[in-house]
Amino acid sequence: MFTDTVLLSATTPFSYFPIVLQLCAALGFVGLTMFATHFLGPKRKTSDKLVTFESGIEQKGNARQPVAIKYFLTAILFVLFDVEVIFFYPYAVNFRELGWDGFLAMLLFVAFFLGGFFYILKKGALKWED
Amino acid sequence: MGMSLQQIVFGVLSIISIISALGVILSKNPVTSVLCLIVTFFTIAGHYIMLNAQFLAVVHIIVYAGAIMVLFLFVIMLMNLNAEIEPQKRSWLKYAGAISGGALLLVLLAALREASVSSLQPGAVEIGLISNLGKTLFSTYVLPFEVSSILFLSAMVGAVVIGKKEGHES
Amino acid sequence: MNELQLIPLLPFIILAMASVVTILLIAFRLSHTVIQVTGFLMMCLVVFATWYVRDTLPEEVPPLFIVDGQAALFTGVIIFCVLVIGLFSYIYFEEREENPKEYYILLFLATLGAAILTISQHFISLFIGLELLSVSLYALIAYLRNRNNAVEAGMKYLVLAALSSAFLLFGMALIYMEAGSMKFSGIAEKLPQVSSSPLFLMGLGTIVVAIGFKLALVPFHLWAADVYQGSPTPVTAFIATISKIGTFAVLLRFAQTIHLQQYPLIIAIFSVIAISSMIVGNILALRQQNLKRLLAYSSIAHFGYLLVAFLPGNEAGTEAAAFYLIAYSITLLSAFGVITLLSSREHEAETLDIYTGLIWRRPVVATILAISLFSLAGIPLTAGFLAKFFVLSAGVQQAVWLPLAVLILTSVIGLYYYLRVINTLFGTSGTADVMQKTVHPFFHVSTYITLVVLAGMLFWIGVFPGLVLQGIRLFLLLH
Q: The pTM is what?
């Protein structure tokens, strides 16, 4: 009864309880494994073992170098389109009720983004080789 | 029973979020700051779920803990972390910041103490559900929804203008 | 929502379309001139659309927008400014090697943001409009990223604008928590119950912080000088006119709807802000050797004057504020137009030595600059004088004596540095004119003509204000 009305109704915060359980299980597993291997396994700290692992190649410099701005540009464009996609969620849930009005609203919304996307493509902002 | 389950969850979430938020600003290492920020975002998403604002919680995790965090990490990667770049701030600036921040906190606390909670109606708790939010968004607030897509457009163009190397257009 | 309700929004829809059209034009790699001309035509279309919908006013587009006479008036001023700024931009960016095309997209989007502010009657549209304005401005300010400390200016504006947005949202949340509505009229209905609540007042206070930042009022003015100096000159003109007109319009509507001026506390806060803006702005401008920074400080002071018209909260005050904004925009546009015209490829014409003896080398330009400075100083026969006069008379009606006294005193201080610049114009030791203009003479000539017309308008409004006043009254009656 309780599972039916409260947990599965998806209208109360308690329907998120399984997710919390899952989160706890995932974090607990990670924590437990790290804890267990730390105590169970033998440890021999030689200088070679403490070096950063680079697939067997000798280590060169460190990773703390400034990266190119193009990564950032791609990332920020990703965020914008990510946010756009989020808006599909409430639309999809109400797809039937909203009918053509909702479709037109969504169409206009996507049209603006497509205009932007077209601009980005033509501008070569997503071209990797510069 | 002194506290309900909700109060306990709220307390735990709040404590974690305050500690991790302090970690963001107190940590010397920028990467640690970002990790603390992720924890803060997750606890705030938890708060949204407690308020039954499910869509907000989902968006918060996907956009903030997911996408915005990537941006933060990229910004950190754009900096040169090898150099000792911790700027030597003038100490009076620190004190001024602390004093003004503290004053704001005091005023807020005083206002909250004076505030009457009676004006808060425990009404519409289902408004944050995705289907209800979608209905409102696509009927009453459809105009600002479209304007927000124009806002994205301006962010897009701005990012390309500032971030793109020039001289590749013939 | 039906189609009929969208008709009053036609100018705004066209404004949005202008930016999309520009984006597509850029995607198809059309030239700067094509984009400039198309943009100009689109803006003319916006003006026609405003004219076309005038009979449907006032019309409410619930819940967010209201298109009434006041909104139409401020939108009209904004469109006028963007037409002039667009013209200045052509000669400014054509001189520089950077790709100038995206500039127009951002310009139109920022204008749309300011225009949305003028028709907002809801916190959501206020926030979206303000963000649209700011996000476009971040990129506009840093547009010439290789020079002029542009990136520094953009960064400063970004950080402070984001902070002020946070304050705005926090204030909105507090007010919503107390009043249960984000619509201005909804808040006004709830006012009797909540007006003494500390959280409500706190919310108002944080919103004042955000608005004060956008209008560069003391003590939220710290960004002004650096941003004015660092941005390209047409963008500086944009920040000084359109961005502030939009913000002031929404402040005015909010104040009118919830009768903000009935709270002694709010009046006190705004009086302090107005007085400190007038004093600090004028005093910081006194020793300034950089014309753009000088105009930044002068605009801080001018918005202090404008707040004096805002304080009484009566109709004369609104009229005076509208008149003031019109006079101020024309004045600043002509001043920044002169700076644009004199700027060379490498250097902005911002240090005062460039202007030494300008009157002997380029008499027309120097005269226009002198007229706009006279108008800023509020010398009789110019628009600036009458604007100040109307502000004074609106203030006298409601007897806000202290701000009025400060206004008069600081105007006298202001006279000193404006006259100092004019004195420089008449100086003897002039440096050689190094400008090499390569743009098409048509644009050069049309910029000149625009400047002359602007200067003429300053005189015309200053001597015969009747027509403008009548127009303002006609618009303000439509509500």
A: 0.90
Whether B1 shows a pLDDT value over 50: the answer reads: no
Angle at A124 between CA A118 and CA A126, to 5 degrees: 85
- Considering only CA atoms, which of C306, C469, C329 is closest in space to residue C394? C306
Which is more confident, A130 or A79?
A: A79
Average pLDDT (C157-164) is 93
Kindly indicate whether the domain formed by A67-130 is annotated with CATH number 1.20.58.1610: yes
Looking at beta carbons, which residues of chain C come within 8 Å of A116?
23
Q: List chains touching C (3+ CB pairs under 8 A).
A: A, B
The ipTM estimated for the assembled molecules is 0.86
Residues of A in contact with B139 (CB under 8 A): 98, 101
Within this chain, do residues B140 and B74 fall inside the same structural domain, yes or no? no
Q: What angle do CA C439, C441, C443 make, to 5 degrees?
A: 75
Q: Which residue among B67, B133, B150 places its CB closest to the CB of A82? A: B67
Q: Give residues with Cβ within 8 angstroms of A67, minimum separation 6.
A: B74, B77, B78
Adjacent-strand bridge partners of C351: C290
Rounded CA-CA distance B26/B100 in Å is 17
**Among the three residues B81, B97, B115, which one is the final residue of a domain in this structure?**
B81
- The total number of structural domains in chain C stands at 1
**Residue B108: its chain C contacts at CB < 8 A?**
202
Determine the structural domain holding residue B34 and report its residue range: 1-81
- Which residues have CB under 8 Å from A83's CB, separation 6+? B63, B67, B152
In a domain, B94, yes or no: no
More confident residue, C121 or A3: C121
Q: Which domain holds residue C394?
A: 261-479
Are A122 and C28 in contact (CB < 8 Å)?
A: yes
